[in-house]
């Protein structure tokens, strides 16, 4: 559930109202005067379900916990790993990572840091965090990676030695939020009912004591969450006093509050508001490429789509640039790979030429595949028309428009496309979801890529449902080998070769057509300095301890 | 009367039980289920999902899940949310006051204005006033409320800046005046439809009554018009309107999803909508069951009110 209401701003009647929105946003908390002057109010469309990152299913949680929690390693806005609680990023080169036979060892040195209650953060807390993810009674969203750890040694309070059972290349993505042993161990051991740890229901989850730049202050359900500066923060005292997350489900309301100065940062603004937002003065619009991308899945279990020529023909018949320009105001850019173009180490630019728009080429491929154009303009083979269904989430206007446009692109090359949209849960659910159960031909939805290129869950043939999320049922022995090798290769240059090769193979086999990379609009009051949007899971608040408010505003 | 109420309450228990069973079944027919929230995250692997499913108790057969829920209902605690981990009673308690304030205010405002306009336009039938009220009622009733709400927001909050755009209070404020400022727009949005429809009901019911013979008798006795209308006609005209109003009572608990969303009002409507979005079964069941119980209770209340208003109605 993203946007609750369709954007009403686009209604002609409102244009007059909204078009004049050029007023200078007022100062936040003006009524409070000096006391609130160093408060930054951030819009959140959804309320986090919990402030415990291990058990949350929502993206809203990630944003909300970044200011209060510490990660060993985090990611900056340029998609580089940077040290947070750890002193340095452990790599093969700096001897932080050592390969030992089949396994590997990663050593972290911790900075001197303290929990918000004053107790020191130690290596034992890192070990505890691993134990949390290992505990079967914890409702952990994902144990991926933590289950590859054999043991953790803590030779002293500042040193953590992590022993992996096998070589695990995405190791830097682990330990994104360290939990305090002294506050949570009792909850972890207590079971509310057999197999359900009290950790899942802990009071800490709604009033966490972390070690980040800000301390939890209050949470008014459905309304706002307030944090105040942690003056003892190990990476330097924050330059602002208070961060408030205001929960505003409706985008028109968010727009109004931004204009009124009641919020400073409008995160992930609606694309339909783009033109109005551009006219608003006193704010800066950050257009940031996202790691999410729209794509078209082909169900290879369908005998028609099992033919690579048909899949490639469909990919070549669809004009990404036109969809971008006409439906997404040019904000979403053409995508050609499952890896983000921002991920410069791993992205393979050569795929762009391989999957370019070419309707004539598409027709040729379909001819070769034996599909002959009939009198009605659609192709057929053996008396069967080339007819395919496309499924997406209903109620998302841009996707519905994209499907309409696709229908006409495909008609032009002789394919009859039938649109059958379903509500999100019916598409993604299990065991009855269309993707999971394989009851679809083409699926249009979005994936989120990661700073780590690991994509084994999408393309390895062992990951066909029910085992994994290879919804396309793609199977290529070389890709199988490469995706497995990729997770066992720690050397970055070697790893880059592997993932570039996978991208070329995917472009040839076309189990999926990448369509468009999302763009996130973050609109920020110009009095805020230091806001650097971050597309990774570190989120926009990754550097909130460096944010400041301009003098005189 | 006391025995009657008791009998009504007791007979409604099996009804409510049946309703909960029906709700439970319908809820489980919704596609997706609670695990769908996790499946868009590629890092969540099937083995992780299996563990989450087990902890949430979703691997139990459906009838067992219902019996567990029934047990939690009978012990008065309505279980824990699958996602927030909080007790459902605690969640409802934190959202309910806001909803009561919003819906209660709008109920009182709508009732006062609706009944007044209805009575007046019946008394002044076919005058300019009556036509004015009728026109207003037609417009008010046919307005798409979400559109009207957004218009209010953009005009009074964004453009004119007379009123705050959302929430219960400004940050750091707790005063009554601040609350009233925040109430104006959502209450207007909610009341416009109720005023429009209630004034119509009141008008037609009143028109029927003032043509009755006892009203003519009252006039013939020489009573002044105010007393005729206020005491003799009005009280009897209220009987059918009470039904309409009683039907609106459970809504005071349930909140208003649209209004609460547009005006960022943290109420039960939003809690319900969010819970529905992620199939948080215990929360959905709790809100629906309480609503169902309130429908039963307000029907009993309406019956009691009939007897109080019209001496001819008796329950033995």
Summarize it.
The complex is a heterodimer of chains A (553) and B (316). Chain A has helices at 12-19, 59-65, 123-134, 181-189, 251-259, 274-279, 308-317, 320-327, 351-354, 359-368, 397-412, 424-428, 434-437, 456-459, 477-486, 492-509; strands at 39-44, 73-75, 81-83, 97-100, 103-109, 149-156, 159-164, 191-193, 196-197, 214-220, 224-229, 242-247, 265-266, 283-298, 333-334, 372-373, 379-381, 384-385, 387-392, 416-419, 442-448, 512-525, 528-529, 548-549.
List keywords for this structure.
heterodimer, A: 553 residues, alpha+beta, four-stranded mixed β-sheet, 16 helices, 24 strands, B: 316 residues, mainly alpha, MetI-like fold, 2 domains
3D architecture notes:
- Chain A is α+β, with helices and mostly antiparallel strands and 553 residues long.
- Chain A has helices spanning 12-19, 59-65, 123-134, 181-189, 251-259, 274-279, 308-317, 320-327, 351-354, 359-368, 397-412, 424-428, 434-437, 456-459, 477-486, 492-509, and strands at 39-44, 73-75, 81-83, 97-100, 103-109, 149-156, 159-164, 191-193, 196-197, 214-220, 224-229, 242-247, 265-266, 283-298, 333-334, 372-373, 379-381, 384-385, 387-392, 416-419, 442-448, 512-525, 528-529, 548-549.
- In chain A, helix 7 (308-317) packs antiparallel against helix 10 and helix 15 packs antiparallel against helix 16.
- Chain A is globular and about 80 Å long.
- Chain B is mainly α and 316 residues long.
- Chain B has 2 domains: 2-74, no CATH class; 96-309, MetI-like (MetI-like fold, Orthogonal Bundle), CATH 1.10.3720.
- Helix content of chain B is 74%, strand content 0%.
- Chain B has helices at 2-29, 46-56, 62-74, 88-123, 128-142, 145-159, 176-209, 213-220, 225-254, 257-262, 268-277, 281-309.
- The longest helix of chain B has 36 residues, at 88-123.
- The chains are: A alpha+beta (553), B mainly alpha (316).
- Chains A and B meet through helix 1, strand 12, helix 5 and helix 12 of A and helix 2, helix 4, helix 6 and helix 11 of B.
């Amino acid at each position: 559930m993203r946007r609750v209401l369709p954007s009403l701003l686009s209604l002609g009647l409102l244009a007059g109202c909204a078009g004049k929105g050029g007023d200078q946003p007022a100062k936040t908390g003006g009524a409070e005067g000096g006391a609130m002057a160093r408060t930054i109010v951030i819009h959140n469309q959804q309320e986090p379900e919990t402030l415990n990152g291990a058990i949350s299913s929502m993206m809203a949680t990630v944003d909300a916990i970044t200011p209060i929690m510490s990660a060993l390693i985090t990611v900056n806005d340029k998609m580089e790993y940077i040290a947070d609680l750890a002193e340095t990023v452990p790599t093969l080169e700096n001897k932080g990572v050592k390969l030992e036979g089949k396994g590997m060892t990663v050593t972290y040195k911790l900075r001197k840091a303290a929990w918000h209650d004053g107790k020191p953060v130690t290596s034992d807390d890192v070990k505890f965090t691993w134990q949390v993810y290992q505990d079967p009674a914890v409702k952990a969203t994902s144990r991926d990676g933590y289950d590859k750890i054999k043991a953790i040694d803590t030779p002293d309070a500042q040193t953590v030695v992590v022993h992996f059972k096998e070589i695990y290349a995405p190791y830097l993505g682990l330990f994104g939020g360290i939990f305090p042993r002294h506050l949570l161990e009792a909850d972890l051991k207590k079971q509310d009912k057999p197999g359900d740890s009290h950790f899942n229901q802990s009071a800490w989850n709604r009033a966490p004591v972390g070690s980040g730049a800000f301390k939890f202050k209050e949470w008014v359900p459905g309304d706002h969450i307030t944090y105040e500066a942690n003056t003892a923060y190990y990476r330097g005292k924050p330059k602002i006093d208070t961060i408030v997350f205001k929960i505003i489900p409706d985008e028109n309301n968010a727009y109004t509050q931004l204009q009124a100065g009641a919020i400073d940062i409008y995160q992930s603004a609606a694309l339909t508001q783009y033109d109005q937002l551009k006219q608003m003065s006193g704010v800066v619009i950050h257009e940031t490429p996202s790691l999410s991308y729209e794509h078209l899945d082909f169900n290879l279990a369908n005998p028609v789509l099992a033919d690579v020529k048909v899949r490639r023909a469909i990919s070549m018949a669809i004009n990404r640039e036109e969809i971008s320009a006409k439906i997404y105001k040019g904000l979403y850019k053409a995508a050609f790979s499952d890896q983000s173009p921002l991920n410069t180490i791993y992205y393979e630019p050569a795929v762009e030429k391989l999957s370019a728009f070419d309707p004539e080429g598409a027709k040729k491929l379909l001819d070769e595949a034996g599909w002959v154009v009939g009198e009605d303009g659609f192709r057929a083979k053996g008396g069967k028309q080339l007819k395919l269904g496309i499924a997406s989430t209903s109620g998302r206007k841009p996707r519905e428009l994209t499907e309409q446009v696709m229908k006409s692109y495909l008609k032009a090359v002789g394919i009859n496309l039938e649109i059958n949209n379903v509500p999100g849960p019916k598409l993604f659910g299990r065991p009855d979801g269309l993707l999971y159960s394989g009851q679809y031909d083409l699926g249009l939805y979005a994936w989120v890529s990661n700073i780590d290129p690991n994509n084994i869950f999408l393309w390895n043939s062992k990951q066909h449902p029910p085992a994994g999320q290879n919804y396309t049922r793609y199977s290529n022995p070389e890709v199988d080998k490469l995706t497995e090798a990729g997770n066992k290769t720690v050397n970055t240059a070697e790893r880059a070769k592997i993932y570039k090769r996978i991208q070329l193979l995917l472009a040839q086999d076309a189990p999926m057509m990448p369509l468009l990379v999302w763009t996130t609009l973050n609109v920020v009051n110009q009095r805020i300095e230091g806001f650097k949007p971050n597309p990774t899971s570190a989120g926009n608040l990754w550097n909130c301890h460096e944010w400041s408010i301009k003098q005189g505003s | 009367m006391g025995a009657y109420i008791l009998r009504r309450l007791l007979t409604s228990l099996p009804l409510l039980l049946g309703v909960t069973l029906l709700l439970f079944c319908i809820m489980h027919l919704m596609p997706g289920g609670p695990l769908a929230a996790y499946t868009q995250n590629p890092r969540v692997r099937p083995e992780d999902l299996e563990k989450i499913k087990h902890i949430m108790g979703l691997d139990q057969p459906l009838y067992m899940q219902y019996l567990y829920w029934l047990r939690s209902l009978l012990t008065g605690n309505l279980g824990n949310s699958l996602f927030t981990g909080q007790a459902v009673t605690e969640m409802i308690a934190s959202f309910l006051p806001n909803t009561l304030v919003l819906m209660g205010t709008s109920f009182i405002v709508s009732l006062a204005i609706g009944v007044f306009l209805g009575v007046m336009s019946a008394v002044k039938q076919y005058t300019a006033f009556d036509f004015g009220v009728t026109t207003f009622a037609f417009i008010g009733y046919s307005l798409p409320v979400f559109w009207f709400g957004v218009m209010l927001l953009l005009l009074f909050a964004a453009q004119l800046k007379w009123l705050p755009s959302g929430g219960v209070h400004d940050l750091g404020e707790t005063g009554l005046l601040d609350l009233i400022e925040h109430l104006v727009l959502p209450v207007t949005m909610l009341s416009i439809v109720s005023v429009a429809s209630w004034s119509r009901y009141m008008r037609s019911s009143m028109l029927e009554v003032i043509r009755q013979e006892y009203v003519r008798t009252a006039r013939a006795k020489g009573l002044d018009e105010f007393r005729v209308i206020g005491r003799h006609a009005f009280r009897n005209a209220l009987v059918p309107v009470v039904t309409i109003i009683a039907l609106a009572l459970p809504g005071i608990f349930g909140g208003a999803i649209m209004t609460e969303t547009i005006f960022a009002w943290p109420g039960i409507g939003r809690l319900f909508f969010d819970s529905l979005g992620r199939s948080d079964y215990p929360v959905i069941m709790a809100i629906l069951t309480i609503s169902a119980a309130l429908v039963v209770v307000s029907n009993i209340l309406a019956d009691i009110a009939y007897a109080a208003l019209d001496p001819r109605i008796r329950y033995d």
